[in-house]
Design goal:
- This protein is an alpha+beta fold.
- It contains 22 helices and nine strands.
- It has a four-stranded mixed beta sheet with strand order 4-3-6-7, covered by helices on one side. A three-stranded antiparallel beta sheet has the order 1-5-2.
Length: about 500
C-alpha cells in the first residue's frame, strides 16, 4: 500500500493555560492561595495590592489624553473579595474582547509569556521575629541544657551524654543501662575501667531532670519516678506506689476485683489511687516536643439573619488586587520592542490571574451556598440532624462536575455557629432507618458518641448494646458498623472503658 494523507475531523479534550490556572487556584487552600498571590505579586510588576481605604483611581500618572482613557479603564479592574456584587461586576466587565482565547492548548504559562522571576527581599524593616523564632526545643536539647547546669566530673559527663543520646522522643531509654555500659567500654580510654554502678548512678541523676519520669526503661519505672518526686504528704501516695510497682498489669487489664483482693485495698481508696496515677504522664517527652499549633482560617462564614442563613466569603483570605496603573500606561500597542512585549505579556497574565481569582471566588460561594441549603438541619439542630450528601448532589445543584466540587471542598473551611468545619465534613454516606428513610453516617457517629458519654462507668455499653439502642431510635446498623464508627471516633472498646463506680 502506498502512503497517503487523510484529513479527519474530530473532537478532543484540551486545557488552555487559562483553564489550567483556574483549576490550580481552585484547589489551593487558604494559606497556599496567599502564598501563590504573594509569588505572583513579586514576579508580575503589573499586579499590585490595593491597600485598605485606597481607591482604585488614586495616584493616577500624568499622561496624554489617549492613554488616560485607556488607563482609567485598566485601573478600575479590581477584585474585591469582601464584596461579592463588585466581584460579579468585574467579571462581566472582562469580556472576550479583553481576554482573547487564541493561546495554544495544552501549554503552560512559560511557553507563552516570559515573566521575570521575582525574589523576595528581606530588609530589617520586614524582619518577622515570630516566624524566625518558632522552632520548638527538642527533648535532647532540654536535657543537655540541664546537664550544663549540673555540677559533674568529666568522667560522669561522658556517661551522661551517652545516656541522653539514648533517650527517645517519648522520654524512655531506647537501650538498657547494660548496653550503654558496654558501648562506653568499647570507646573508653581512661586508665580505670568504667563500672556498671557508675552508669546507674549517673542514670539515677538524670532521672531527676525535667520532665519527671524521663530516662526510664519502661512504664512502671517511669510512673514510680514521678510518684517518688511527689511530696510525702500527698494523699494516697503509698497506695498508688503499691499498685504501680506490684499490680500494674491488673490495672491495665481493668481487673479491679482481683486487684483489690490481692492488694487488700478498699474500693474507695483504690479509686483515689487510680486518679492519682492518671494524673501522671505515661510519655514524659511528649510535654517537651509538642507539635506546632496549626491555625485554621475559615474561607466562608455562615450566619443566621432572622429566618434565613447567609453565606459570606471571608474578606481576609485574599487581598484586593488591581492592575498597576503606572506600568499599564507604559504599554504601547504599536510598539513591537522586547520591553513593550514583556509589559504587554505581563498585563495579559495579570488580567487572567484576576479573572481566575474571581472564578474561584464565585465557585466557592456557589458550593458553600448549596451545602448550607442541603444541611440546614445541621446548622439548626446539630450533627444528629445531618443529612446524607455526596458530591453528586452538590454538583447537580450548582451545575458543575463532581471533580470540580471535590477540588472546591478540599482544604476549605466553613465557620458556623457550631464551630469551624472542613467542607468535606458535610459529605457522608447514608444508613437505613426503620421507616425506610436514610440517616447520615455523621449523625450515627454523633449518636454513638452520645450514648457512650451517657453510659455507666462500671458497666460500659458493648457494641451489641449500642446496636439495640440505635434500633430503638429507628436506625438499623450492624455491629461491625458500630465498631468501625467507634474506632473512627478514637473510642476504645467496652472492656477498656470500664471504670470503678
Amino acid at each position: 500500500m502506498k502512503p497517503t494523507l487523510q484529513l479527519r475531523q474530530g473532537q478532543s479534550l484540551a486545557m488552555t493555560p487559562q483553564l489550567q490556572q483556574a483549576i490550580k487556584l481552585l484547589q489551593l487552600s487558604t494559606l497556599e492561595l496567599q502564598l501563590e498571590i504573594q509569588q505572583t505579586l513579586e514576579s508580575n510588576p503589573m499586579l499590585e495590592m490595593l491597600e485598605e481605604g485606597e481607591s482604585s483611581e488614586d495616584n493616577l500618572p500624568v499622561i496624554s489624553e489617549e492613554d488616560l482613557a485607556r488607563l482609567r479603564q485598566t485601573s478600575n479592574e479590581v477584585v474585591d473579595f469582601s464584596a461579592p456584587e463588585q466581584s460579579s461586576a468585574a467579571s462581566e466587565e472582562w469580556s472576550d474582547e479583553h481576554i482573547p482565547d487564541e493561546l495554544p492548548v495544552d501549554s503552560q504559562w512559560d511557553d507563552v509569556f516570559e515573566v521575570s522571576s521575582g525574589t523576595a527581599s528581606h530588609s530589617d524593616e520586614d524582619f518577622d521575629f515570630d516566624s524566625r523564632n518558632t522552632a520548638t526545643e527538642t527533648l535532647q536539647e532540654h536535657l543537655l541544657w540541664q546537664l550544663n547546669l549540673t555540677p559533674m566530673s568529666d568522667r560522669d559527663r561522658i556517661v551522661a551524654l551517652a545516656i541522653i543520646d539514648a533517650v527517645a522522643s517519648s522520654g524512655f531509654l531506647e537501650m538498657s543501662a547494660e548496653d550503654i555500659h558496654q558501648g562506653l567500654l568499647a570507646q573508653w580510654q581512661d586508665e580505670d575501667d568504667l563500672e556498671l554502678d557508675e552508669v546507674l548512678a549517673v542514670l539515677h541523676r538524670i532521672q531527676q531532670f525535667d520532665p519527671p519520669g524521663v530516662a526510664a526503661h519502661d512504664l512502671r519505672e517511669c510512673l514510680l519516678i514521678q510518684l517518688n518526686q511527689l511530696h510525702e504528704d500527698t494523699p494516697w501516695l503509698l497506695d498508688a506506689k503499691l499498685v504501680v510497682s506490684e499490680y500494674l498489669d491488673l490495672l491495665g487489664s481493668r481487673d479491679y476485683k482481683l486487684l483489690m483482693r490481692k492488694s487488700e485495698i478498699r474500693e474507695n481508696t483504690l479509686k483515689k489511687a487510680i486518679e492519682l496515677i492518671r494524673s501522671l504522664k505515661p510519655q514524659p517527652g511528649a510535654a517537651i516536643e509538642e507539635e506546632k499549633t496549626e491555625y485554621v482560617v475559615p474561607d466562608v462564614y455562615v450566619r443566621r439573619k432572622r429566618t434565613r442563613w447567609v453565606v459570606e466569603l471571608n474578606p481576609d483570605i485574599a487581598p484586593r488586587l488591581r492592575i498597576n496603573a503606572d506600568y499599564a500606561a507604559l504599554v504601547r500597542r504599536a510598539d513591537s520592542s522586547a520591553d513593550n512585549a514583556f509589559l504587554r505579556d505581563c498585563l495579559q497574565e495579570a488580567r487572567w490571574f484576576l479573572k481566575s481569582l474571581t472564578s474561584r471566588n464565585e465557585t466557592l460561594m456557589k458550593v458553600a451556598t448549596a451545602i448550607v441549603e442541603h444541611q440546614r438541619g445541621f446548622l439548626e439542630y446539630g450533627a444528629e440532624a445531618m443529612k446524607p450528601m455526596v458530591l453528586a448532589n452538590i454538583a447537580e445543584s450548582v451545575g458543575l462536575h463532581e471533580s470540580t466540587i471535590s477540588r472546591v471542598v478540599n482544604q476549605k473551611y466553613m465557620h458556623t455557629p457550631g464551630g469551624v468545619f472542613e467542607l468535606k465534613y458535610f459529605f457522608s454516606s447514608h444508613v437505613s432507618t426503620a421507616g425506610g428513610g436514610e440517616c447520615s453516617s455523621t449523625a450515627v457517629r454523633t449518636m454513638i458518641k452520645k450514648l457512650i458519654g451517657e453510659e455507666g462507668a462500671s458497666k460500659p455499653l458493648s457494641d451489641s448494646a449500642i446496636v439495640a439502642l440505635l434500633e430503638k431510635q429507628g436506625v438499623q446498623v450492624a455491629r461491625r458498623t458500630v465498631a468501625k464508627y467507634r474506632e473512627s471516633l478514637n473510642i476504645p472498646p467496652s472492656s477498656e472503658r470500664k471504670r470503678l463506680g
